[in-house]
Structure formats: C-alpha cells, structure tokens
Amino acid sequence: MPSVFTRIVRGELPAFRVAETDHCLAFLDINPIQRGHTLVIPKQEIDYIFDVPDPLYTELWQFARRVGRAIQTVIPCNRIGIAVIGLEVPHAHIHLVPINTMADLDFSRPRLRMSAEEMKGLAREIGEAYRRLFE
Predict the structure, then answer these.
(1) pTM of the model
(2) Which positions are annotated as active-site residues?
(3) How much is the mean pLDDT over the chain?
(4) Which residues form the domain of 40?
C-alpha cells in the first residue's frame, strides 16, 4: 500500500505544495508545530532516509536547503530547524521548521491550527519566494 506521501506525489491526496523538482517535493505540514513548517520528500517512496540512494540523497538535501531559504524570506525567524524522525510516515522526509529558540522544534508541543485559506496563502508565498530565488 502506498504511503500517504506517495499518494500526495501522485495527486491522489491534496497538499499545500510549496515547490518541487523532478525527484523531490516540498509541502506544508498539515499539523505544523510552527507557522511555515514544511516537509521535504523524495518523490520515490523510500521508507528510511539512510536508504535513499546517494545521488537522490544529495539532491534531496540541496532541495531542502533551497526550500529552507525560501521559508526564511517569508517567515521571520533566527534559523530553519531541521528534523528527520521518520516514524510517523513510512516515507523518508525532512521537517523544515522556522525557529527562534530550541523549544520551537519540540514535536511534543500542541500543533497549530491554521485554516485552509491560511495554508494556501502561506504555500503560495513560500513557493513564490522559492521561484524568485532559484528559478
């Protein structure tokens, strides 16, 4: 059975897409711990980040860096925190989270509630920043 992320890649499930390449996709986390919390995935379904083949692994992290820079132009923050946990969805993914303190990257915190319109607008803003910076 395909992962929820594979179903997003295929367009079977909706997502607030931020940016994509031929092999990678970035979209907003629907249960964000911070405004702008974005997931970066390889389009190929691979469960564990360390099982991603070398060329794709490098491409995934380069793409994540670009997406992180785009997020930072939209969301005022000190850093973009990075987490690779990999337990909640069996599809390799990188969490990019705007942070100002270490506590901002605490996944045990209550999740933010954002409307679909807020999410759509934020995804559009980050996507536009990505295109301005990298296309």
Answers:
(1) 0.97
(2) 93
(3) 97
(4) 4-134
